[in-house]
Amino acid sequence: MARQKRVAAIHDISCFGKCSLTVALPILSAAGIEACAIPTAVLSTHTGVPGYTYRDLTEDILPIISHWQALGLPFDAIYTGFLGSFQQLDLVSEVFRRLRSKDTMVLVDPVMGDNGALYRTFPKEFPAGMRRLCAQADVIVPNMTEASLLLEEPYQEGPYTPAYIKRLLRALSGLGPRKVVLTGVCFDQNQLGAATLDAGTQKVEYLFETRVEGYYHGTGDIFASVLAAALLKGCDLTEAASAAVEFTAESIARTKEAGTDVRFGVNFEAGLLKLSAQLEL
Ligand code: PXL
Question: 248: domain CATH number?
Answer without folding.
Answer: 3.40.1190.20
